């Protein structure tokens, strides 16, 4: 059963202090960024830090990923070589399924089959979601909404509870769910505004995202709070499992629990939740 990924912290590879700090912040996924957080003049120095940064995160318990510069960038080939050391790779601005096949080939040439996370952050990427999400043979693990780039390219504003982005976010979740992939929400830029973060995290959870991408360590605990599971959800799941295990309910398709109708699909969801929570505790 798959583990929970509630928090995915971007860590600029150009910031040694942030790399050091990231090892201890408790994020489920750490994304060492070689792309937008790193200025053009810092790229080579940042890339040279990848191996050491990944090593320094090996005891963190997090999945360690590297976000490379996109296939059109001059830095891409060198980035791919270093990223092949990670547990996973994050590809920015995925426009079509061919981008995933190209990345898979490059990673194979470096002798690795690490999972790929695709950032959906262009109008073309949203339009091609079906094909992108169907590319599970490329080792695709999840979709990540890139809300800053998407808002820029759509020329929409990120106001009114992300009104203009919501249809695209829902499409990303739907594509991920249809193919059994993770779906992670975009970042919240106002990193000193916990109230605004809470509202956006709640919205992301409501839309069905598994977790949220983050830019600051102060956002990790809040992401875990919103992308749960809460202790009440865990207790409820345990009660559902226990109820179906009761010999009185043996073979039943539907039972009554605390005034609710509970079906076997709820039992499956309860088992998945308990298993994922157990994996993260391990
Ligand atoms: C946003 C920041 C530039 C703010 O930096 P700063 O003002 O220095 O923050 P603090 O002083 O509050 O930092 C406190 C300590 O925390 C460490 N820190 C800060 N950020 C991180 C981090 N991301 N990971 C790990 N540690 C971090 C500082 O080093 C301080 O440590 P200490 O000295 O011990 O107290 C900064 O937070 C930042 O650079 N964040 C990441 C920005 C980033 O990665 N951007 C690119 C990814 S987002 C994106 O591209 C999304 C997508 O593509 C889209 O299109 O939407
Ligand atoms: Mg982006």
Summary keywords:
282 residues, TIM Barrel, eight-stranded parallel barrel, two-stranded antiparallel ribbon, 13 helices, 44% helix, binds ligand LIB3CWND, binds magnesium ion, Citrate_lyase_beta/mcl1/mcl2
Indicate the topology.
Layout (H helix, E strand, L loop, with lengths): L6 E6 L3 H7 L6 E5 L9 H5 L2 H7 L6 E5 L8 H8 L4 E4 L5 H13 L6 E5 L2 H5 L1 H5 L6 E6 L1 H8 L11 H13 L3 E4 L8 H14 L3 E4 L5 H7 L4 H15 L8 E4 L2 E4 H18 L1
Parallel strand pairs: 1-2, 1-8, 2-3, 3-4, 4-5, 5-6, 6-7, 7-8
Antiparallel strand pairs: 9-10
Helix pairs in contact: 12-13
The structure holds ligand LIB3CWND and magnesium ion.
Ligand LIB3CWND binds next to β1, α1 and α8.
Pfam families: HpcH_HpaI
Family: Belongs to the HpcH/HpaI aldolase family.
Organism: Maricaulis virginensis
